[in-house]
């Protein structure tokens, strides 16, 4: 169940042997850890438990993940980094709003491709109160990178306040759609949900004006 998305792969470049071995080890650790989290609970599972289950030392575990929390949220961070890469390299010909919407729809598609892993992580996070802040942060932390990608796209830092607002509103719609999708066990179309939530903001803007 390796949910890690590599932005270089999405641009057509294949990883080398060392990178493939690293990913295989990461995938093994992730699968084992998620199984233990389900069986015992996140807080009741130690890094030593995970290391023992994959027959490695905790020191070796730390070569791949800095903590249990990083292990749980790494795919979310990676997929959002893929979004920033997509925004820089693929959607360059569109307006800032159009490029951002296309990027979020691309991310929604990636979530759907890996829905089993993301759904499992969501359920683990939401039944563990200590993880909720980290879960929310993992979704919000890449907003500055999205702003930078849009600023680089336009070739200017002008309008930074507008870009920050645009990204914040769009990411809020994405997070809301993602939550609804997870609550329905990922049984609906996430791209359609995202479009609906983006439309809510447009409707609100018209009412305010």
List the helices and strands and how they pair.
Elements: H1 7-10, H2 17-40, H3 47-53, H4 58-64, H5 68-89, H6 96-113, H7 115-126, H8 132-140, H9 143-154, H10 160-183, H11 190-208
Helix pairs in contact: 2-3, 5-6, 5-8, 5-9, 6-10, 6-11, 9-10, 10-11
Domain HTH tetR-type: 23-83
Keywords: DNA-binding
InterPro entries: Homeodomain-like_sf, HTH-type_Tx_Regulator, HTH_TetR, MftR_C
Q: Give me the strand/helix succession.
A: HHHHHHHHHHH
Helix content: over 70%
Q: Give the C-alpha Rg.
A: 18 Å
Class of secondary structure makeup: mainly alpha
Q: Counting H and I runs of at least 4 residues, what is the number of helices?
A: 11
N/C terminus separation: 47 Å
Beta-strand content: under 5%
CATH architecture: Orthogonal Bundle
Query: What's the level 1 CATH class?
Result: Mainly Alpha
- Runs in which pLDDT lies below 50 for 5 or more consecutive residues are 4-8
Cα shape: globular
In CATH, what is the homologous superfamily? Answer: Tetracycline Repressor, domain 2
Can you count the beta strands? Answer: 0
Largest sheet: none
Total domain count: 1
Q: Do you know the CATH topology?
A: Tetracycline Repressor, domain 2
Average pLDDT over all residues? 87
Question: How would you characterize the overall build of this protein?
Answer:
It contains eleven helices and no strands. It has one domain (7-208): Tetracycline Repressor, domain 2. The protein has 209 residues and is mainly α. The radius of gyration is 18 Å and the shape is globular. The chain has helices at 7-10, 17-40, 47-53, 58-64, 68-89, 96-113, 115-126, 132-140, 143-154, 160-183, 190-208. This is TetR family transcriptional regulator.
């Amino acid at each position: 169940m390796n949910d890690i998305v590599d932005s270089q792969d999405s641009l057509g470049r294949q990883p080398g042997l060392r990178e493939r071995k690293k990913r295989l080890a990461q995938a093994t650790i992730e699968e084992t850890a998620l199984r233990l989290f389900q069986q015992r609970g996140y807080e009741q599972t130690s890094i030593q438990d995970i290391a023992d289950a994959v027959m490695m030392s905790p020191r070796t575990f730390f070569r791949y993940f800095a903590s249990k929390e990083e292990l749980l949220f790494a795919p979310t961070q990676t997929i959002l980094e893929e979004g920033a890469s997509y925004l820089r390299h693929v959607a360059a010909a569109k307006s800032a709003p159009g490029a951002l919407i296309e990027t979020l729809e691309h991310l929604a598609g990636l979530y759907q491709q890996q829905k089993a892993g993301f759904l499992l992580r969501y359920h683990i996070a939401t039944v563990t109160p200590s993880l909720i802040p980290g879960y929310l942060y993992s979704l919000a932390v890449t907003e500055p990178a999205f702003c930078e990608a849009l600023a680089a796209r336009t070739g200017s830092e002008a309008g930074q306040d507008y870009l920050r607002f645009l990204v914040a509103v769009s990411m809020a719609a994405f997070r809301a759609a993602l939550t609804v999708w997870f609550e329905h066990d990922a049984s609906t179309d996430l791209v359609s949900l995202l479009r609906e939530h983006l439309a809510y903001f447009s409707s609100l803007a018209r009412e305010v004006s």
